[in-house]
C-alpha cells in the first residue's frame, strides 16, 4: 500500500509540473519536475528513498526507448545512418578513451578504470531532455531527428563501455581484445535478439488482425508487454536489453506502416496510450532525479565534505570537456550541411543533454566491492548529477542565441480559428434546419471560447448588463400592458435563477439539482421525474422547467422570452469589441442555448448528426483549399486535420449530450 501511495504522489508531481510548465513556458518542464522531486525528498516517506537501477531500467527505460523506436522514421535512420553511427558509437568510444585518460591524469585519486566508467555514464544523451529544454527555442526537424536517433543507439554503447570499465575496476584486469569482442557481441547481439523477438510479436499481432481479434485490449496489451519481454530476454542472454527494445520498437513501427488504414480504432487507441505512458514515464525520470539529488548531496557532504567543492568542479570540468569534444566531432565528422556548420555544430553540442540512462548508470554502481564499502560511489554520483544539471541548464541559456527566433503569433491557432469559422459559416447558411444548425454552430464557437479563456470578472460584468437589459425589456412589456404583473413577476424569477445557474459553481449546481428534483417530483407526483431532474444538468433543465411552470398557470413563456432574448442580443452586439469578444461569445452562447430549449423541447438527432457532418466537411474543404493554395504548410495542415478527426470521434461518443 505504501508503494502505491508513493507512486501516486510522484504521479501528482508529474501532473503539477506539466501544469506549471504550461503556464510558465519560459522555464523548461524538467526543471519543474526536478524541483518538485526535491520538495518531495523532505517528506518522511521519501527521505530514504533509493532507486533500484534494475527496476528503473526494466520498468521505465525499456518502455520509453521502445516507444521512441516505434516512432522513429526508418527512412530518416537510413538516410542519416552514417551520422548516427558516428555519434552513437564513434563519439562514445572516443569520449570515453580521451576524457577517461584526461580525468585520471588531472585527478589521480580517480583510478583509470573508474574514470572510463564515469565518462561512459555521462556520455549517453536523452532525446526527451533535449526536447524539453528546446521547447522555447525549437530545433529544426533534421536536427531533432538526428538527436533522437542518436539517443536510441548511444545508450547501449555507453552502457557496454560502463560495464566493461566497472568490471575492469572490480577484477583489476583489462584486455582490449576481450573488451572489443564483448562490445560487439553485446551490441549486435542485442539488436539481433530485439529484431527477432520483435518480428515474431509483430507476426503474432498480424495473425490476430487477420482472424478478427484486433480488439484494443488484446493488441495494445501485447504491445505494452513487448518491451518488458524483450528487455528481460536480452539481459538474461547477457546482451544489451536497451538495444533489444529499440530494435523491437523499430519492428513495431514497420507493422504500423503495413497496417496503414486497417485496424484504425486499435491504432488510434494505441497511439494515445503510448503518448500518455511516455509522458508519465519521462516525467517520473526527472521527479526521481529531483528526489535523488538531496540525498546525493547530503551523503557526499557526510562522507567527503572537504571534497564537495572539488567534486562539483570535476563535474563542471567534465561537462565542459565533453561538450568541446562533441562540438569538434560534430563540426568535422558529421554531415550537417554546408551552410552554418559552426552554428549547427554548436546546436548538436547543446543537444547532448543527459537524463535517464545517466541517472540509471550512476545509481547502478555497487555499494560494496570485495566486501568493502565503495568509497568513491557517492562522489561519482554527485559528479554525474552535476553533469546532468549542467546539460539541462546550459542549453536554456545558450540556445536562444543559436536558434532562429520563432514568430510570436501562433499560426496554428490562427488557422484553427479560421477553420472553425468555416464550419460556423456553413451552419449560418443553413435555413431548413435552423435549430439544429445553431446547436452545431455554438458547439464550434465554444472551441474558440475555450482557447481564448476570458476572465471570470469580465464575464460577470457583461452578464450583469444582460440581466439589466432583459429586465428592462420585461418591465416595458408590463408597463404597456402586453404582459400581466404575474407574468412579469415569475419571469423575473426566471431571470434571477438564470443568473444563479450561469455561475456553474459546484455548490450552486448541487443546490439547483436538489431544487429541480423536488419541484419536478411535486409537479408530476412521480419519483422518476424527480430522479431524472436530479440527473439532468441544471442549464438544460431550467428552461424546460419554467416553460412547464408557465403552461401550468395558463401563461405563455415563449413571447416573453423572445422579447428578453432580443434585448439581450441587442445589448451584446452593442458592447462587443476586440477586448471582450471571447467573453461576449461565451454569454451569447448561454442565451442562445436557453432560447432554443425554451422554444423546443427536443431536437431531431438524425438532422443534428447531418449538420455536424456538414460542418466537419466544410472545415475539411477549407483547410484542403488553403493547403492547395500554398497558404498552409503540411505540418499545420496535419494538426488541423487531426483536430477535425478527434472532434468527429468526440461527437460520436457524446451525441446524447447535444440533444438532452
TrEMBL record:
GO terms for molecular function: potassium:proton antiporter activity; sodium:proton antiporter activity. GO terms for cellular component: plasma membrane. Residues 11-400 form the Cation/H+ exchanger transmembrane domain. GO terms for biological process: regulation of intracellular pH; sodium ion import across plasma membrane. InterPro entries: Cation/H_exchanger_CPA1, Cation/H_exchanger_TM. Pfam families: Na_H_Exchanger. It comes from the Bacteria. Gene3D superfamilies: 6.10.140.1330. Signal peptide: none annotated. Its main location: membrane. It is a multi-pass membrane protein. It is found in: Cell membrane. This is Sodium:proton antiporter. The lineage of its organism: Bacteria, Bacillati, Bacillota, Bacilli, Lactobacillales.
Amino acid at each position: 500500500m505504501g508503494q502505491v501511495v508513493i507512486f501516486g504522489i510522484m504521479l501528482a508531481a508529474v501532473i503539477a509540473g506539466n501544469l506549471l510548465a504550461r503556464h510558465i513556458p519560459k522555464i523548461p518542464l524538467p526543471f519543474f519536475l526536478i524541483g518538485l522531486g526535491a520538495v518531495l525528498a523532505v517528506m518522511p516517506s521519501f527521505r530514504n528513498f533509493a532507486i533500484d537501477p534494475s527496476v528503473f531500467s526494466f520498468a521505465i527505460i525499456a518502455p520509453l526507448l521502445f516507444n521512441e523506436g516505434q516512432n522513429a522514421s526508418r527512412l530518416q535512420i537510413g538516410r542519416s545512418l552514417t551520422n548516427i553511427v558516428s555519434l552513437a558509437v564513434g563519439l562514445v568510444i572516443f569520449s570515453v578513451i580521451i576524457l577517461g585518460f584526461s580525468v585520471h591524469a588531472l585527478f589521480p585519486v580517480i583510478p583509470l578504470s573508474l574514470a572510463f566508467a564515469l565518462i561512459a555514464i555521462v556520455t549517453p544523451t536523452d532525446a526527451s531532455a533535449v526536447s524539453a529544454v528546446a521547447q522555447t527555442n525549437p530545433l529544426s526537424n533534421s536536427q531533432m531527428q538526428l538527436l533522437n536517433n542518436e539517443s536510441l543507439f548511444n545508450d547501449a554503447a555507453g552502457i557496454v563501455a560502463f560495464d566493461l570499465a566497472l568490471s575492469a575496476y572490480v577484477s583489476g584486469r583489462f584486455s582490449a581484445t576481450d573488451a572489443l569482442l564483448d562490445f560487439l557481441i553485446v551490441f549486435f547481439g542485442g539488436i539481433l535478439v530485439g529484431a527477432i523477438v520483435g518480428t515474431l510479436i509483430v507476426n503474432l499481432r498480424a495473425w490476430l488482425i487477420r482472424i478478427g481479434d484486433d480488439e484494443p485490449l488484446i493488441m495494445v496489451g501485447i504491445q505494452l508487454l513487448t518491451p518488458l519481454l524483450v528487455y528481460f530476454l536480452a539481459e538474461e542472454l547477457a546482451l544489451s536489453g536497451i538495444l533489444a527494445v529499440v530494435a523491437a520498437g523499430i519492428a513495431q513501427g514497420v507493422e504500423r506502416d503495413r497496417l496503414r488504414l486497417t485496424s484504425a480504432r486499435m491504432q488510434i487507441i494505441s497511439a494515445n496510450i503510448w503518448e500518455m505512458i511516455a509522458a508519465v514515464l519521462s516525467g517520473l525520470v526527472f521527479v526521481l532525479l529531483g528526489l535523488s539529488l538531496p540525498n546525493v548531496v547530503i551523503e557526499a557532504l557526510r562522507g567527503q565534505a572537504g571534497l564537495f567543492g572539488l567534486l562539483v568542479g570535476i563535474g563542471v570540468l567534465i561537462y565542459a570537456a565533453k561538450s568541446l569534444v562533441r562540438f569538434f566531432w560534430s563540426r568535422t565528422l558529421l554531415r550537417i550541411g554546408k551552410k552554418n556548420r559552426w552554428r549547427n555544430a554548436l546546436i548538436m553540442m547543446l543537444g547532448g543533454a543527459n537524463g535517464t540512462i545517466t541517472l540509471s548508470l550512476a545509481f547502478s554502481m555497487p555499494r560494496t566491492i570485495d566486501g568493502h564499502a565503495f568509497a568513491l560511489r557517492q562522489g561519482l554520483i554527485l559528479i554525474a548529477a552535476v553533469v546532468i544539471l549542467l546539460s539541462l541548464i546550459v542549453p536554456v541559456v545558450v540556445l536562444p542565441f543559436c536558434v532562429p527566433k520563432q514568430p510570436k503569433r501562433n499560426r496554428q491557432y490562427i488557422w484553427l480559428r479560421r477553420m472553425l469559422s468555416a464550419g460556423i459559416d456553413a451552419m449560418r447558411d443553413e435555413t431548413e434546419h435552423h435549430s439544429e444548425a445553431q446547436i452545431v454552430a455554438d458547439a464550434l464557437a465554444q472551441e474558440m471560447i475555450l482557447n481564448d479563456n476570458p476572465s471570470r470578472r469580465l464575464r460577470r460584468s457583461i452578464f450583469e448588463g444582460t440581466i439589466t437589459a432583459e429586465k428592462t425589456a420585461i418591465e416595458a412589456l408590463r408597463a404597456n400592458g402586453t404582459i400581466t404583473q404575474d407574468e412579469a413577476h415569475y419571469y423575473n424569477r426566471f431571470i434571477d435563477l438564470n443568473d444563479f445557474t450561469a455561475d456553474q459553481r459546484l455548490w450552486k449546481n448541487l443546490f439547483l439539482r436538489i431544487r429541480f428534483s423536488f419541484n419536478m417530483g411535486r409537479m408530476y407526483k412521480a419519483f422518476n421525474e424527480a430522479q431524472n431532474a436530479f440527473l439532468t444538468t441544471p442549464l438544460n433543465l431550467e428552461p424546460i422547467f419554467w416553460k412547464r411552470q408557465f403552461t401550468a398557470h395558463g401563461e405563455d413563456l415563449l413571447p416573453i422570452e423572445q422579447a428578453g432574448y432580443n434585448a439581450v442580443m441587442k445589448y451584446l452586439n452593442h458592447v462587443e469589441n476586440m477586448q471582450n469578444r471571447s467573453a461576449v461569445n461565451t454569454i451569447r452562447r448561454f442565451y442562445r442555448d436557453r432560447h432554443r430549449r425554451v422554444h423546443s423541447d427536443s431536437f431531431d438527432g438524425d438532422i443534428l448528426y447531418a449538420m455536424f457532418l456538414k460542418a466537419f466537411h466544410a472545415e475539411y474543404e477549407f483547410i484542403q483549399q488553403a493547403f492547395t493554395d500554398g497558404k498552409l504548410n503540411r505540418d499545420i495542415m496535419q494538426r488541423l486535420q487531426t483536430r477535425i478527426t478527434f472532434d468527429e470521434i468526440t461527437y460520436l461518443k457524446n451525441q446524447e449530450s447535444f440533444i438532452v
